[in-house]
Amino acid sequence: MLRLMTLLCALTMISACATTTPLANEPLADLGAFRLGHNVVIADKARTGPVSRAATGDEWVDVLRPAVARRFGRYEGNQLYHFGISVEGFMLAPPGVPLIYSPKSALIINVTVWDDAANAKLNPEVKQFTVLETTTGGSFLVGSGHQRSKEEQMQGLAENAVRQIEDWMVEMKAERGWFEPRAGAATSATVPRDELVPQSEGVVPPTVPAVQG
After folding, report:
1. Which residues, other chains included, contact 123 with Cβ-Cβ below 8 Å and sequence gap of 6+?
2. How far apart are alpha carbons 104 and 52 in whole angstroms?
3. Whole-angstrom Cα distance, residue 75 to residue 84?
C-alpha cells in the first residue's frame, strides 16, 4: 500500500510526452491470430492517490472497458484471448499552481491475458503497467487539472493504457510466440461486446463463460 501511494505521488511530478493521434486512427499492430474474447475490468479495490480528484471504480470500468473494446475489437484473428484488467491505483491531477506545482495524472493497472483454446494464462504473473497522461505544452505549464476535466483525464489514461498493453503484446508475440496460429485453436466463436463478467481478483478465471459460436 505505502509503495503504491509513494509511486503515485512520484509519477504525478513526471511529464509524459506521447502521441496525440487518436487511438482509433492508429494502424493495427501484428498480433497474429488474436481476437478479443471476454473483456473484464474491475476497479473495486483501486487506491486513490493523496492528491487526486475523486473517481469511483464504476467510472474506471466505464472508461477502460470501452477503450479496450474499441482497440482490440478491431483485430480479426481466429483464436480467442480474454483480458483480465484490474485498476490498482490512480491519481487524477487537480488544479495546481502554474509553474510551481503542476501535478500530472497517473494510473496503475494489472493485466492478465487468457488463451481460450488452452484454457490457461499466457502470463502466469500479472503484468503491471504504470500509465502517465499525455502532456501538452499547456498542461505542462499550468497543470493537467487546469486544462482537462476529470473525464478527459480518465479517457486519456485509458487510451495510453491500451497503447501500452498492445505494445507489450507485440513484444510477447516476438519473444514468446503469443498469438501464433495453432492447430485446433481456431474458432468461429464470438463474445458480445456488451458482456460483462464480474470478478473479484482482477483476472479472468479458467472457467470463463462459454462464448457464442
Report:
1. 111, 112, 113, 172
2. 10
3. 18
Q: pLDDT tens digits, residue range 2-31?
A: 455 555 555 544 444 444 556 767 899 999
Supply the pLDDT for residue 26: 85
CA–CA separation, 87 vs 161, rounded Å?
11
Which tens digit of pLDDT belongs to each residue from 180-206? 999 999 999 988 766 444 343 344 444
Tens of pLDDT, residue by residue over 29-43, are 999 999 999 999 999
Q: How far is CA 81 from the centre of its chain?
A: 15
CB atoms within 10 A of CB 77: 17
Residues 6+ apart with CB under 8 A from 143: 93, 95, 96, 97, 98, 101, 102, 103, 104
Q: Which residues contact 171 (CB under 8 A, 6 or more apart)?
A: none
Task: Please give the sequence-ordered ranges of beta strands (E in DSSP) within 4-157, or none if there are none.
Answer: 34-42, 47-48, 79-91, 106-115, 120-121, 127-132
Does position 71 have pLDDT exceeding 60, yes or no? yes
**Alpha carbons 179 and 97: distance in angstroms, whole number:** 47
Answer for the pair 107, 134: CB distance below 8 angstroms, yes or no. Answer: no
